[in-house]
Amino acid sequence: MRFSSKTVGLASAVITVLSWTGFIVIARASASRGLLPLDIALARVLGASAILLPWAWWLMRPARQAGQKVGSLCGLSPLPLAPTVQAGFLGGMLYAVLAYNGFFFAPATHASVLMPGSLPLWTTLLAWLVLREKVSSARAVGLGLIVLGDVLVGGASLLMAFGGGEVWKGDLLFMTAAFCWAAYSVTVRRHGLDAVRATMAIAAFAFVSFVPVYLGLVMLGVLQTHLGQVPWTEILFQAVFQGVGSVVISGITFTQMVRHFGPVRSTMITALVPGLSALGAVWFLGEPMHWNLLAGLALVTAGILFGVRQSKPAPALAPGATASPTSTTQGSPP
Length: 334
Description:
Blueprint: H1 5-30, H2 37-65, H3 81-102, H4 108-130, H5 137-160, H6 167-191, H7 195-219, H8 232-270, H9 272-285, H10 291-309
């Protein structure tokens, strides 16, 4: 059965939004289920690698058979070594480590505001510095609203630090993780990388760098792990959801969504993520929604929408074309 382009686009949008929303809620819930942050990061890397590395090998097979030298990291990455290392370190390894550690300090309601909210701010600043992109007046106003929203959330937890609170650590980790993803986005745009190949590259780099270092430190007793203290079903769930779902499936559906709706409308659709994930945290995790969180959420969502309101929508990609994961710089990372 062949589905219409509209049906595929709508389905992709729904899957993307639910996946990104679920990432925030489930990552926070996982912080109390036994696994440590780096254990979850390992499950994410292994789950994504199980799909993407064989796919990358198959993708490069015709070129290898033709005698061409393609890829790097012993044929695991379809990209040259330099962009593989840059994209993989920022978007694959460092982002996951920072984000998962953040959920062990701060609630999901904070992540709902600070991760999607900080991303367009960092991306715009880096694009201005590195790519020399101009910042429109509409986007500047939108960024101002986002900054105010972040300050309302992060500033309150920072004040609590004087009383011994540690929520500010999670807030700082969330914003740093968003910075890493923004830097990855700019790297992808700077090199003009294909979305699928870039995702394969970050999985390959994380597999050959993070996995052996993690296992080596665990064997030496330097690093703690709870992998042996939880049911195997928990590890499998994290590998499937965090790796296959959040990395592979949402990466494909996001690309398909941008292809159908264009970058501007896709950004407006993903602006649902902060609100839905905050509601999910309140509903499923029982987290309180204080006035500063509600105000910060409203400001961040309004800032994202206002930043793209006056942008000219880009035409949908032709069939067979591949959208960059940063066709819109305001999206949220999985």
